[in-house]
Amino acid sequence: MKNILLGILAFIAVFLVSCNNSKAENTQIAVAKFTTGDIVPNDQVCMVNNAYMGKKQLEVKHDGKTYYGCCENCKLRIPQEENARMAYDPISHQLIDKATAIIAISDKNDNVVYFENKANYEAFFNK
To answer: According to the UniProt entry, where is the signal peptide (predicted)?
Structure first.
């Protein structure tokens, strides 16, 4: 009797695991691999840490614009700290809004740099 019960439990466990695996395989999203110099989606950047995170970040609305942060602390800092919302374009040296900036990976550690336009991005990376 114990053997039959163990067999049934083993079958159920295998069935449940196989269902979960196929479901996970079907719902996986392809993630693009970005490298230094690539423009990245704004919603995958923690604008407090100025880092490409590789996945969608937490949305923070402020003054009608959308910013992104990686954690609850970032959600608190974005409305309070201008440097979480603004950055200097390295070409024009103009203060620009991160919500509307072109964002690119600046190094192998996935740090990012912000540009006010595509021409400045191209000039920075000599493209």
So the answer is: 1-24
Please say whether the beta carbons of 41 and 99 come within 8 A. Answer: no
Rounded CA gap, 112 and 53, in Å? 10
Taking CA atoms, 65 is separated from 1, 73, 98, in Å, by 65, 19, 10
What is the pTM assigned to this prediction?
A: 0.74
- Answer whether 103's CB lies under 8 Å from 117's CB: no
Segment holding 7, helix H or strand E:
helix 2-27
Query: Which tokens is 9 given?
Result: 């439990």
Q: Pick from 22, 26, 53, 52: which is nearest to 114 by CA? A: 52
Alpha-carbon distance of 64 to 14, in angstroms, equals 50
Residues 73-91: pLDDT tens digits? 999 999 999 999 999 999 9
CB of 101 closer than 8 Å to CB of 66 = no
Whether 28 shows a pLDDT value over 80: the answer reads no
CA distance 116 to 39: 13
